[in-house]
Each structure stands twice: as C-alpha cells, then as structure tokens.
Design a protein that fits this description.
- Chains A, B: One of its GO terms (molecular function) is DNA binding.
- Chains A, B: Pfam families: TetR_C_4, TetR_N.
- Chains A, B: Keywords: DNA-binding.
- Chains A, B: This is Transcriptional regulator, TetR family.
- Chains A, B: InterPro entries: Homeodomain-like_sf, HTH-type_Tx_Regulator, HTH_TetR, Tet_transcr_reg_TetR-rel_C_sf, Tscrpt_reg_YsiA_C.
- The structure is a homodimer of 196-residue chains.
- Chain A is mainly alpha-helical.
- Chain A folds into 2 domains: 46 residues, Arc Repressor Mutant, subunit A (Orthogonal Bundle); 142 residues, Tetracycline Repressor, domain 2 (Orthogonal Bundle), CATH 1.10.357.
- Helices cover 78% and strands 0% of the residues of chain A.
- Chain A contains 9 helices and no strands.
- The longest helix of chain A has 27 residues.
- Chain A is elongated and about 65 Å long.
- In chain A, 38% of the residues are buried.
- Chains A and B meet through helix 6, helix 8 and helix 9 of A and helix 7, helix 8 and helix 9 of B.
- The first copy, chain A, binds a DNA duplex (30 and 30 nucleotides) through helix 1, helix 2 and helix 3.
DNA sequence: ATTACATGAATGAATAGTCATTCATGTTTT
DNA sequence: AAAACATGAATGACTATTCATTCATGTAAT
C-alpha cells in the first residue's frame, strides 16, 4: 500500500514538474522535492528519467482511453459517438492541464524511441476516430469520399490545437461546451451526407 | 559575403541537427560539424544555443509568411484565399521537413520564453486565417455563427497534424493536393453558408 | 511485555561524465 | 602589419545515477 502510494505520488509530481519545466530542464531533484521523497527513492520505483516520462504517459492515456471506450460501447450512432469522443477529450485535457502538456509537448520530442512509443500507444486512442468514421460511412451517414485516416488527423489535430491553447494563453473565455460545439458543427457538417 | 554565407550554413546545419536530434540532445559540436566550421565559429554569429533556435524559426517562418502574404494580396475571394493558405502551408511543410519539425516540435517546448516567443511570432502567421474568415463573414460567404478565433485553431490544428505525420511515419501515400483537398472540403463545407 | 534480531524501504552525499562557452593562438584579408 | 575572421582544446558548471548507511517496522525469543 505504502509502495503504491509512493509510486503515484512520484507520478503526480513528475507530471507537474515535466509540465512546468519540460522533460530536459526538469531535474530529478525537482521531482523528488515535489513528491516529498529523497532523490534516490525515485530509483526504487523507476529505472530512469525516461521511464518516469513514459509511465506518466502510459497511465494518463490509459485512463482516458478506458473511459472513452466504455462510454462509446453503449452507443451506436456515429454522430453521437463523435460527440462523446470530442467532449471527453476536451474535458480530460482541460481537467488535467499538466498531463495535457506532457502528452502534447514533451512526448512529441525528438528522441525517436519516445516518439515512436507515443505514436504507437496513441494510435489506439486516435484510431477510435477512424473506426467511428468508417462505421458512419457504412451506415450511410458520412460521405464515402472522406478518407477515414486523413479525417482522423484533421479532427484530432483540431482538438489538439484548441486544447493546447488552454495551456499557453489564458484563453479561458471559451468553455468546453462552446469549443466542442464549434468543432463538431464544422467537422460534422464537413463529413456528413447532405440531408436537406 | 563570406560572413553571410557562413551564417546561413550554420542555420541550415542547425535546422537539420535540431530536427534530427532535438534541441536539447543536439550538441553544438554536431551543428559545427554539419556546417563544417569550428565550434567556436558558431559563437561569432550567434549568442548561444537558444539564439540559434530562434534564428532558425525567425528566418524560416519569415519566408513562408512573406510568400503567403504576397499570394493573398492579389486575391479577394475568401474561399480561394483559404485554398491558397492551405496549399502554401502544406507545400512548405512538405518541402522543408526539417524546418517543419523544428517549428512543430522543438519550438513548442516548455521554456516559457521560447513558447511565448513562438506564439507571438506565429500568431502573425495563423492570424491570417482569422482575417480571411472574418472577411468571408462580412461578404456573407461564411456563416456568422462561426468564431473566427476558434476556427482558426481548428483549421491550423488540422493542418499541423496532417503535416506533422509526414515527419513521423512514412505516410507518403497522400499527396499535398489530396490532403489539401480533404482538409478544404471538410472545413469549407463546415463554415460556408448553405447555398443549394 | 521487553529485548534482540531481521528486513528492506528510504535517504542524500559522492561519483562520473557531459557539454556550452571561452579564449589563446593561428590564418586570411585589406 | 593591422584588422578581421576562424579554430578547437581547455574550462568549469551542472546533474543523472549510485550505493553505503540509516531507520521504521515486524517477528521471535525470553
């Protein structure tokens, strides 16, 4: 119990420190201080600095992925499914800005191993969009001339950028609902079969 | 001449090295080697490592911005203007993958100074989208319930993500034209006033 | 219930290596 | 022969990781 507790304390601290200072500028001693443990203790729970970063990502995305999949399972309307995905994503990013920062910035970084790891792990999450779009096309709700893979990038990129801004400027004047509504309005109108 | 020549040689080399290894992992000696100058020579042209990064960005974005503004000046159809912007951006990102990498990844980094600098400089470039959208709304071509600021993020995020992928996977199987077409189809249908 | 012993989690000072930046020296240009 | 430019080895500051030691908790023996 105590061990598990300390593990998450370090994860939480690291998320915060990485978000604030960036992976390379963050010091192990910063994380230790934030988590209120000794520097050495961190190495009882993680192999090295990279391992901490990957764990932050793994556990963070894991939670979001799990929740999203659960919510979507109870649904079979493509439009409604996209709505759920968008709202869940924006809500999660807004709620945990530190995690958002790590996912959006630190994990993209250069290091090929990190980058490929992120893309692999992440593709499970963004792949959901592709699946929904294909499903919608089969149902005849979404236009068939839309490339599911490309439009996945288009939607995800839009979500990524609008939520990234929450971490940069103090553009708090848009709520999750407003943003979700704009993104969905534009994207859905863009991919749906005309019906009026 | 010789000085100017060396300056750009270093910029080009740095762009390549930063793109490949990332800002923090890149060594000054790597850049020097790539540019075929001595380590110390770099400090005759730049104040420090950060200065090199900012210069890469400044000069790179400057060129793209200039070209885009020039092309747009000769036009007054909002739809056509968006098309030009999208195609120019994708073409530029595709053509200079190293610069794209630096802009998209390295410059987002954490360091608050860097980040704010990027956002300030960049907002001039992405702000063009906002202007075009507002222009289109005034002309009654784009829906008035679209937030120009938000939809700027939506379009730019989409562009950023689709072009980022060119640097990660070997997803070369979409051409600039195909990608531009999908993005524009979806986005324009999303923001235009219905006219049928 | 007190004492002796055992365990392994936690500590943080010391290590070992890295690299941005400087500068004494050399080379080229005017 | 100045002045301007270029070199790259040496410097010095910085920090991830290690590991000898401490300490808290549990178990066994008396």
């Amino acid at each position: 119990m105590k061990a598990e507790n300390k593990h998450s304390k370090i994860i939480t601290a690291a998320t915060k420190v990485f978000a604030k200072k960036g992976f390379f500028t963050a010091r192990i001693s910063d994380i230790a201080k934030e988590a209120k443990v000794a520097d050495g203790t961190i190495y009882l729970y993680f192999n090295n600095k990279y391992d901490i970063l990957l764990s932050v990502f793994e556990e963070g995305v894991g939670k979001i992925l799990g929740k999203t999949q659960k919510l979507l399972a109870a649904n079979d309307d493509p439009v409604e499914m996209l709505r759920i995905y968008v709202i869940e994503h924006l809500t999660a990013m807004r709620k945990n800005k530190n995690l958002a920062e790590v996912i959006q910035i630190e994990l993209r970084q250069t290091n090929k191993v990190i980058k490929q790891y992120r893309d692999k792990k992440f593709s499970e999450y963004t792949g959901i969009i592709t699946t929904i779009i294909q499903f919608g096309q089969e149902k005849g709700v979404f236009r068939s001339d839309i490339h599911p893979d490309l439009s996945k990038r288009i939607l995800f990129g839009a979500l990524d950028e609008v939520s990234r801004v929450w971490n940069v400027t103090l553009e708090t004047h848009y709520t999750v609902e407003e943003v979700a509504d704009q993104v969905l309005t534009i994207f859905l109108r863009g991919i749906m079969v005309a019906n009026n």
